[in-house]
Structures are given as structure tokens and as C-alpha cells.
User: Which sequence fits this backbone?
């Protein structure tokens, strides 16, 4: 499955240029981390990918299909986890998963076994029947990631999913995400500003001021960290 | 996995009904509010006011029978606005993002949402009508059937207006203010409580405001509907306006930006 972003630009109110002629290609079945300091354009890119804002110019293609406001079909290949919680606190974890499955167009006979599978995979058996409002931050995150995977997407996009989690939960989340790329056979795009969460074989894209300034593997750590530190110190 | 076209509609309907049932205060007040008007307000005026013969009534009627269509409209008005309030709440809490990233067209999403809201409003109005009949309001039995399409169309139209408001309002607090500026003027400056000719006798300005108030057409459409005349100019007007407003709502949610 091929995912590419071509010449993407976005300007807020015709003044603030958040994305500048961004071109990226994501690799399937692997983790790609999107790093960058605050204001780099990561969240704007994420919103454009989710269709929450329209890019000023450029296009997004999933396996040759153009994803824009007139064609929502390519969204069935993506699962999203947003930075802020987007889960219905009044309903149980299972009701939230069922709601997401139905929105994806899944019939009951298909999604029931899938929900059970995800409840096991994410160890949610203890709390999936409870109202989401009573769950901890880490439990809610697991539920949100499980929800994003309900329709077996080819791509999982996460916008700073470790925000607000303690170190233990952050490490568990990082492990989970890396396992997902293998078990679910999906490409993971992970917006973060914490490089500690990454593994040496992860792909890394560094953004600054709306542009891609580095793309490569996390192996080339020295060069990468030097550039990243430079960027953060100049903010 | 095979995709079901009906599954997203079930998701939205189920969530709307689930939310309505769980919000017990909303559920109860939806029925108690118009009942208070019927039992307290209309009862007081029943012995004072008789309504002269006018369409669709064939004889002099009591005030409680006159005011019932207005109270049915009031239920649809409150539910339509509360449903759009929940949309602003969804946007604030982020739940809207899940809806917007579903692989179905926004036109379809909005239509499902509007149909769900109109269905809840219609259900509420029929509970109210049942209680009103038990209370002694002399509604024609056939009107219960002929009123269904008009009540549903009126509820859909109000839900559309609520959705337009919701698309323009970014903060939950602002929406509460707007609701007060919409619901109460819409209700009082209409034919819900008094016939238009009677309003004109008192004030030409208020009469003109009532004539231009869309809620007047909602009330009149329901009035004729539950008196066995579902097809009127008012209903046709609401239907045409709903088609135009649907296009506007679709554009607002497709071309507008969703946080």
C-alpha cells in the first residue's frame, strides 16, 4: 500500500504558512516518526491528513486514489488517533468500539469478533464494559488505538499519543505501536517530539517551519540528534 | 470485510437515541415543559378564550386545542436546538473528529444526523400528544396519522436550522446564549399562542415579525397536519426550505474547517 503527499501547503487565514510545499512518501508495515519542535507543522499536517482542514495546495494519494473532500473512500484505509481524547465519555469502551465499527461500515457479524480480538490484544477485558469517563489516561489511549484499528486499516496515524501519560504507560504504548506494524501489517505514522520513544530501525522525518528537513532511518542517530538539537535550540 | 451502507446510519441513530435516553433531565423536561404550558397556561385561558372559526377548524374551539400544535412545535424546537448543542459539545470534546474521519460523505453523515434528530423530536411529540389526549384535548384520531409527515418535516427543518447555528458557533457557552435568542423569540413571535389575526389587532409590528418567522409556518403546518390536512402551502414551504438549507448545511460542513 502506497501513501504519498505531494507538494502540500497550508496557510492559516492567508497569513501563517504552516505547511510549505511538503512532499513525503510513507513506507508500509513500518513505523515512521514525524519529529519536530512546536510549530513545525506536525499537527497541521495531521489535520490535513484527517480531512479536518483543507490544504491550500497539493494532494494526498493512497494507492493512487486521491483523498480529498469529494472522495471519502480513501479514509477507510486509515485509522486515526488524535492528540486530544476523542472518545465518548458517557458510553462504555465496547459501545465506543461498536460505534466506530459501524461508522466504518462494518456489519455486526464482522465487528463483534474483531472487537473481541482487539480487547484481548490490548488487554482491555477488565475495563471495556465500563464507562470511558471512569478509565485512566493509559486505558483510554489503549481504547483509542484499538478503536482506530477496528477496520484493519493499512495506515495508522497518531498525533502525539503519549501526551499526558506517565513513563511506564509511554513505554508500553511505544512497544504496542511497534508490535502493531508487524501484527496488523500496517504502516504507522507517529507524530511526536520525544525521540526516546523510537527504535533504531524506525523511519524518521523531521519537520521545521512547515518543511521536511530530514528523512532517513533512526540509525543515523548522531546526525539526526545534532540537527534536532539545533532546531530546538533556535526556537 | 464487506461494507454495509446502513451501518453508519445505525451508528448515528443509536448514539443519538442512547444519548437522549441517558440524559434523563432532557428526556423528562422535553415532555414536562409543554405539559406545563398545556395544564397551567392553557387551562387558565380555556375558560376565558374561545377561538373563532378559522381554518382548519370547522367550529369554535377551546384554547387548549388551539395551543397544542404550538406546543408540539415547541418540543421540536427544543429538541432540534439541543441536538445541535450536542454537536457543538462533540466539537469541543473532539468526538466530532471521529465522525469527520469516517469513510462516508459528509452529506450522508449530516442527513443521518438530521433524520435521527427529527425522529427523536417526532417520538417526543407523540408521547406528548398521547398525554394531551388523556388530559382531554380533543384531537381528531385520524390526525394522529395525517400529522406524522408534517411533524417529521417540521422537526427536520428545525434540526437543519440548529445545525446551521452549530456550524457557526465555536464555543459551547456562546451557544447557550444563542439558544435563548432563538428559541424564545421564535416561539413567542409566532402563531403558537395566538392566531395571527388576533396578533394583528394588537400590534402590526409583532404581526409582521410573526409572518416572517419560520416557526409560524412550522406551527401552522403541524396544525393543519393534525387536523387531517397534511398538504398545505406551509408544509410545501417547509419542504422547499429544507432542501435549500440542506445544501447550505452540506457546504458549511464540507468547505468549512472542523477543529
Assistant:
Amino acid at each position: 500500500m502506497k501513501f504519498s503527499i505531494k507538494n502540500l501547503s497550508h496557510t492559516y487565514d492567508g497569513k501563517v504558512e504552516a505547511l510549505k510545499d511538503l512532499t513525503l512518501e510513507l513506507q508500509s508495515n513500518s513505523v515512521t516518526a514525524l519529529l519536530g519542535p512546536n510549530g513545525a507543522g506536525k499537527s497541521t499536517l495531521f489535520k490535513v491528513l484527517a480531512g479536518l482542514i483543507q490544504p491550500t495546495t497539493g494532494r494526498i494519494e493512497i494507492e493512487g486514489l486521491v483523498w480529498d473532500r469529494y472522495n471519502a473512500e480513501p479514509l477507510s484505509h486509515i485509522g486515526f488517533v488524535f492528540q486530544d481524547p476523542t472518545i465518548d465519555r458517557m458510553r462504555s469502551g465496547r459501545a465506543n468500539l461498536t460505534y466506530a465499527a459501524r461508522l466504518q461500515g462494518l456489519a455486526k457479524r464482522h465487528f463483534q469478533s474483531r472487537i473481541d480480538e482487539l480487547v484481548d490484544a490490548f488487554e482491555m477485558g477488565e475495563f471495556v464494559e465500563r464507562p470511558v469517563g471512569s478509565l485512566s489516561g493509559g486505558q483510554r489511549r489503549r481504547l483509542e488505538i484499538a478503536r482506530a484499528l477496528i477496520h484493519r486499516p493499512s495506515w495508522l496515524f497518531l498525533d502525539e499519543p503519549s501526551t499526558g501519560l506517565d513513563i511506564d504507560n509511554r513505554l508500553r504504548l511505544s512497544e504496542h505501536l511497534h508490535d502493531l506494524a508487524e501484527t496488523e501489517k500496517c504502516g504507522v505514522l507517529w507524530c511526536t517530539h520525544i525521540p526516546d520513544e523510537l527504535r533504531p530501525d524506525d523511519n524518521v522525518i523531521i519537520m521545521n517551519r512547515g518543511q521536511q528537513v530530514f528523512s532517513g532511518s533512526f540509525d543515523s542517530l548522531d546526525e539526526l540528534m545534532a540537527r534536532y538539537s539545533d532546531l530546538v535550540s533556535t526556537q | 470485510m464487506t461494507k454495509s451502507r446502513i451501518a453508519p446510519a445505525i451508528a448515528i441513530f443509536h448514539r443519538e437515541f442512547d444519548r437522549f435516553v441517558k440524559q434523563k433531565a432532557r428526556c423528562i423536561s422535553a415532555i414536562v415543559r409543554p405539559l406545563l404550558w398545556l395544564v397551567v397556561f392553557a387551562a387558565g385561558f380555556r375558560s376565558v378564550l374561545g377561538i373563532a372559526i378559522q381554518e382548519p377548524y370547522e367550529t369554535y374551539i377551546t384554547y387548549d386545542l388551539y395551543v397544542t400544535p404550538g406546543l408540539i412545535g415547541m418540543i421540536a424546537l427544543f429538541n432540534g436546538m439541543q441536538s445541535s448543542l450536542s454537536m457543538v459539545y462533540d466539537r469541543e470534546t473532539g468526538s466530532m473528529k471521529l465522525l469527520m474521519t469516517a469513510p462516508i460523505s459528509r452529506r450522508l453523515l449530516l442527513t443521518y444526523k438530521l433524520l435521527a434528530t427529527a425522529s427523536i423530536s417526532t417520538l417526543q411529540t407523540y408521547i406528548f400528544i398521547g398525554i394531551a389526549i388523556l388530559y382531554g384535548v380533543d384531537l381528531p384520531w385520524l390526525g394522529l396519522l395525517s400529522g406524522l409527515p408534517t411533524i417529521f418535516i417540521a422537526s427536520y427543518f428545525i434540526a437543519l436550522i440548529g445545525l446551521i447555528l452549530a456550524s457557526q458557533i465555536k464555543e459551547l457557552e456562546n451557544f447557550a446564549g444563542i439558544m435563548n435568542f432563538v428559541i424564545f423569540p421564535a416561539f413567542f413571535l409566532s402563531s403558537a399562542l395566538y392566531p395571527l389575526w388576533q396578533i394583528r389587532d394588537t400590534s402590526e409590528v409583532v404581526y409582521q415579525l410573526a409572518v416572517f418567522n419560520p416557526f409560524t409556518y412550522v406551527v401552522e403546518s403541524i396544525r393543519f397536519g393534525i387536523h387531517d390536512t397534511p398538504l398545505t402551502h406551509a408544509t410545501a414551504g417547509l419542504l422547499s426550505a429544507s432542501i435549500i438549507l440542506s445544501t447550505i448545511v452540506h457546504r458549511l460542513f464540507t468547505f468549512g474547517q472542523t477543529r
